[in-house]
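User: Just a sanity check before I run the rest of the batch. Below are the structure tokens for the first item. I only need the designed sequence back.
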């Protein structure tokens, strides 16, 4: 089974993808996580991607498609989180899977109003060491600003600052929202009310991917 998680930044895709991938034995591929790691390690990809990410713009399609080709497991079984983000990326993914006799089976659209997204992004804190994601109000660590898993001090992502958030939402509307229709036409889009709390969303998500 190959799943795509679609929705605005801050909708909760990564939070749910990590848990569902573990429970269903799927591979979680987050292009955002891979790119942040590449930036941290100053790899050639990271150096090219950084300026786009800092501005809240999309990294060019060629770079993202090459990256997905590199990390795609031969047998599939993937939750794609934050990919595809453009029609060109979606078409490339379809071609890539088709060559291996696979397809995107379901696309889950994380539906949340803008004010919820802004509140989630402004309170998001991440562990710079192990990548765990928290929220100061909705999913706080046990000890103030310290990662439960590895004890590192949590940080705010640079692109979660208000000016960048506004641009990311605009980029989502313009470049990524057309994917809703793209997948609706294929009859594989499922809308999920992602405005509820983390546990409720997870239970609902499990239902929609198993039916
Ligand atoms: P995305 O991967 O879609 O950008 P994240 O999974 O990183 O979003 O979630 C964004 C922020 O919102 C994080 O701080 C996360 O802890 C928090 N969050 C995720 N899901 C929910 C939810 N259902 N209710 C409240 N906060 C949530
Ligand atoms: P995310 O962690 O999904 O919010 O992504 C963080 C940033 O990484 C985005 O604002 C983009 O700059 C970049 N990015 C992640 N995934 C993609 C993608 N599929 N296409 C283009 N840029 C991406």
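Assistant: Here's the designed sequence for the first item:
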């Amino acid at each position: 089974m190959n799943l795509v998680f679609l929705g605005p930044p801050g909708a909760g895709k990564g939070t749910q993808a990590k848990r569902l991938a573990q429970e269903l034995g799927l591979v979680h591929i987050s292009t955002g996580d891979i790119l942040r790691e590449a930036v941290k390690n100053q790899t050639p990809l990271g150096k090219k991607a950084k300026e786009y990410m800092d501005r809240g713009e999309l990294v060019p399609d060629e770079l993202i498609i090459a990256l997905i080709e590199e990390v795609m497991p031969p047998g599939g079984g993937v939750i794609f989180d934050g990919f595809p983000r453009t029609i060109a990326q979606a078409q490339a993914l379809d071609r890539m899977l088709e060559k291996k006799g696979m397809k995107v089976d379901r696309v889950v659209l994380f539906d949340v109003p803008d004010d919820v997204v802004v509140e989630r992004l402004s309170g998001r804190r991440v562990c710079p060491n192990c990548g765990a994601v928290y929220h100061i109000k909705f999913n706080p660590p046990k000890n103030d600003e310290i990662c439960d898993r590895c004890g590192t001090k949590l940080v705010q992502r640079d692109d979660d600052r208000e000016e960048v958030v506004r641009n990311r939402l605009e980029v989502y509307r313009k470049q990524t929202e057309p994917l809703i229709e793209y997948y609706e036409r294929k009859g594989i889009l499922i809308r999920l009310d992602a405005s509820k709390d983390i546990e409720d969303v997870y239970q609902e998500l499990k239902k929609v991917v198993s039916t």
